[in-house]
Amino acid sequence: MTLRLLFVSTSVGPLGSGMGGGVELTINNLAHSLLQRGHQVQVVAPDGSQFSAAPIINIEGQLQVSAQHQSRGTPIEMPGDSVLGNMWAYARRVQADFDLIVNFAYDWLPLYLTQFFQTPVAHLISMGSLTEAIDQVISRAIAYSPQCIAVHTRSQAETFDFADRCHVLGNGFDLSLYKYCAEPSAGLAWLGRIAPEKALEDAVRASEQAGLPLQVLGHLQDQDYFDQTLSQFPGAQVDYLGFLPTDKMQQVLRRCRALLVTPRWVEAFGNVVIEALACGVPVIAYRRGGPAEIVRDGETGWLVEPDSVEGLVDAIANLSQINRHACRQQAEQDYSLAALGERAEQWFDKILRQP
Ligand code: UDP
Predict the structure, then answer these.
(1) Rounded Cα distance, 117 and 108, in Å
(2) Please, how many CA atoms are within 13 Å of residue 176, restricted to the half-sphere of its CB?
(3) Integer Cα distance of 138 and 114 in angstroms
(4) DSSP symbols for 116-147
(5) 177, 28 in Cβ contact below 8 A?
(6) CATH architecture of structural domain 175-334
(7) Measured distance CA(291)–CA(355) in Å, rounded
(8) Which residues touch 56 (CB under 8 Å, ≥6 apart)?
(9) What's the CATH class of domain 4-172+336-353?
(10) Where does the Glycosyl transferase family domain start and stop, copy by copy (predicted)?
(11) Do 4-172+336-353 and 175-334 have matching folds?
C-alpha cells in the first residue's frame, strides 16, 4: 500500500546546516528509501533548509535549544515564536492529507501532541536518555500509541526504561554516494559536530602520539571547546576542513587510513561510522553506544576500551590487519537504503494496524 507521509524535521537548525547533526542525513536517507518503495513524502523543516530528495515546506520561527547539553532535571524551554510550535501547527492543519506523520525532533512538544492528532504520529528518537522531562513524555506517548517509538540501536534503547517498547530501525545510506578507496593516504579522519560529548581531544591526542595527521570535518558547535582542544596539543597535525556536503566530505574521508570515533556519551548510532565503512575506511571506536554495535572488532575496525587514548594508539598501529574491502561489504550488507526502507515499512505497518 502506498503511504502519504509527512516528515517533520528537527527544530534545532535548518536542513543542510549541520546544526541538526546526524538527524539531517537520516531524514534524507529515510525519504529516499521510502520514495524508492513508491511512497509519497512531504517534508516540513525550519526556514532556510536545503533539501532535494522530496518537496519541502519551510517554516519560520525561532530555533529550539539543543537538548544535548542539558542536565537531567532541566525543564522544557521554548522560545516565544517557536519554529517547533509553528511546524506542528502546520502539521495539524494538513494532517488529513497524510496517512502518517513522522517526527524527527528530540523535543517534548511533538511527543506530547501525539494524543491530540487524528493522524497517527511516529517518532524516530535520535539520542539516548538525557532529561527526565523527555523520558516521561516518551512514556506517555507509548501509553497512548504503543508502537509509535523507534530508535537507531539497541544500546540507545537501553538508556531508557522502556527499551523493550522501542523498534530498532538502524539506519540506511545511499551507498552509491560513497566511493570505495583501496589505497589510502597516511592520515586519519574525525567527523562530527565539534562539541564536548564527541571528545575530539582524544582523537587529536591519539593522532599526535601516532605521529599521523588528522583531518577534522563537521559543524563547529562549540568554538571555545575547539580552541581549547587545539591549544592542548600544539604538536598535533590537525587540518579542520569545516562542514562539507556529503559528496565533498566522502572525497576526503575515503582517502583516510581510519576514522576515529571517540564519543564520551552513548552515541545513538553514529552515521559517520557507516559513511566511513562505505568508503572502505576502517573504524576505530570506543566500545560504547551505537558504534560498538556496528563495528566488527578485528574485521571492519577496532573497538577500544572507552576513553583510552592508549587503546586508540594501539588500534592505529594494527590497522594493516583490517581489510578495507570487508568494510565496504559490511555497509552494503546491513545499511543500504533498501534495508532501511523495509524496516521502516514494518514499523509503520505496526503503528497503522494498532486499534
Ligand atoms: N557531516 C557532514 N559533513 C561533514 C561532517 C559531518 O555532512 O563535513 C554529517 C555526517 O554525514 C553525519 C553527521 O554530520 O550525518 C554527524 O552525525 P552523527 O550521527 O555522527 O552524530 P550527531 O551529530 O548526530 O551526534
Answers:
(1) 15
(2) 3
(3) 10
(4) G-SS-EEEE--S----HHHHHHHHHHHHHSTT
(5) no
(6) 3-Layer(aba) Sandwich (3.40)
(7) 36
(8) 15, 42, 43, 44, 45, 49
(9) alpha beta
(10) 191-333
(11) yes
Spacing, Cα 347 to ligand 1 middle (Å): 25
| Side-chain-side CA neighbours of residue 46 (13 Å) | 23
Q: Looking at residue 66, what is its pLDDT?
A: 85
Answer positive or negative: Cα dihedral of 199, 200, 201, 205: positive
List the one residue out of 194, 355, 171 whose CA is nearest residue 278.
Answer: 171
Query: Residues 6 or more apart from 171 whose CB is under 8 A from it?
Result: 26, 29, 152, 269, 271, 274, 335, 340
pLDDT, tens only, 311-345: 999 999 999 999 999 999 999 999 999 999 999 99
pTM reported for the whole predicted model: 0.94
Residue nearest to atom 13 of ligand 1 (CA): 22
Domain spans in the chain, listed from the N-terminal domain onward: 4-172+336-353, 175-334
User: Does the CB atom of residue 244 touch ligand 1 within 6 A?
Assistant: yes
The finding on whether 270 has its CB within 6 A of some atom of ligand 1 is: yes
Tell me if 272 CB under 6 Å of ligand 1.
yes
Burial (CB count <10 Å: 0-12, 13-18, 19+), residue 35: middle
Q: How far apart are CA 150 and CA 106, in angstroms?
A: 12
